[in-house]
Specification:
By secondary structure, this protein is of the alpha+beta class. The chain is about 30% helix and about 30% strand. It contains 9 helices and 20 strands. The protein has a 6-stranded mixed beta sheet, with helices on both faces. Strands 7-6-19-16-9-10 form a 6-stranded antiparallel beta sheet. A 6-stranded antiparallel beta sheet has the order 15-14-11-8-17-18. Helix 6 packs across helix 8 (about 165-180).
């Protein structure tokens, strides 16, 4: 009799009760499908990255059949950094159990935040090669940002986020209307001319903050970026961009420009933050490129590249 397939799930043990119930229900469904489940609770920032790297670098005959991450886009991003840093010649597939505030990656691949759909996707192990971005060497799956959104992330009230979720980002953005100095960022794409922008999003996926479209042509499976330039400065323009995003009209907004490329440099105020997938990845100046090796991401049955 063959051994059951094994899955290792990295998760944050201090997640709220409702999110823990999602994880428990997914584990129950996997066990019912014949999986042996190993839970890997994190204890501090960086643990998800370390666990993923260690698991991926295990000998092929001793590592689990699948790695999964239960958490938000930030926790998933940590684990993906671990996979990118792994030295094993045999890539490790990774699945997600979305339990975060926005779950943008789940939206991007069409994975419903539903325990039956999640368990079915993990059990099927249908994977797709996904090209990962890097900002100053740190990997990101969805987007890297410089300017207003990076300052919102850098100054986010984490306690408030735990209480009210996405509302904390809205409050943070409104504060930036009055605090942000609106400097000019200098952007170069694939060695081309220097372009000026008030904020920049380098996108691998279409969505931002949920299912708000910032880059309609961006695809996780593409080895290139969609570079989104907010060309107009000031509080009124920032509010206009935010309204256009909420209404689904940002790609057509005046002063918003989308270009394609594989290598992006961004300069501006020294030590300005760079955000990636909702976490701070580093500081300016930024060098953003495509990681040399894609990862294998578990996709739901309805996913289309």
């Amino acid at each position: 009799m063959s051994a059951p397939p094994r899955i290792a799930i990295i998760f944050n043990p201090i997640a709220g009760r409702s999110r823990r119930l999602v994880l428990e229900d997914v584990c129950d469904r996997l066990a019912a499908r014949g999986w042996a489940v190993e839970l890997k609770p994190t204890g501090a920032r960086g643990d998800a990255e370390r666990f993923a790297r260690e698991i991926a670098d295990l000998p092929a005959d001793s590592r689990p059949d699948l790695l999964a991450v239960a958490g938000g886009d930030g926790t998933i991003g940590e684990a993906i950094n671990g996979l990118v840093a792994a030295t094993s010649a045999q890539p490790m597939s990774i699945g997600i159990i979305p339990m975060g505030t926005a779950n943008v990656l789940a939206a991007e691949i069409g994975l419903a935040v539903n325990v039956d759909a999640i368990a079915a996707a993990l059990d099927a192990r249908r994977t797709q090669a996904v090209h990962i971005g890097r900002a100053n060497g740190r990997a990101f799956t969805l987007m890297a940002g410089v300017g207003v959104d990076a300052h919102v992330v850098a100054q986010l009230n984490v306690a408030l986020k735990r209480r009210i979720g996405k509302g904390a980002y809205v409050i943070g953005a409104l504060k930036q209307v009055f605090r942000f100095g609106f400097p000019t960022y200098r952007v170069q794409i694939d060695g081309g001319p220097i372009l000026d922008a008030a904020s920049v999003i380098v996108a691998k996926g279409r969505f931002y903050g949920g299912k708000h479209v910032v880059a309609p042509l961006a695809r996780l499976t593409s080895p290139s970026f969609q570079i989104c330039l907010f060309e107009r400065k000031g509080a009124l323009h920032m509010l206009r961009y935010a309204l256009a995003l909420a209404l689904g009209r940002l790609p057509r907004a005046r002063g918003y420009r989308i270009l394609e490329g594989r290598h992006v440099t961004i300069d501006g105020p020294a030590q300005d933050p760079i955000q990636g997938d909702g976490d701070i990845l580093g500081q300016l100046p930024a060098i953003i490129d495509i990681a040399p090796r894609p990862i294998r991401l578990v996709m739901p049955s309805g996913f289309r590249p």
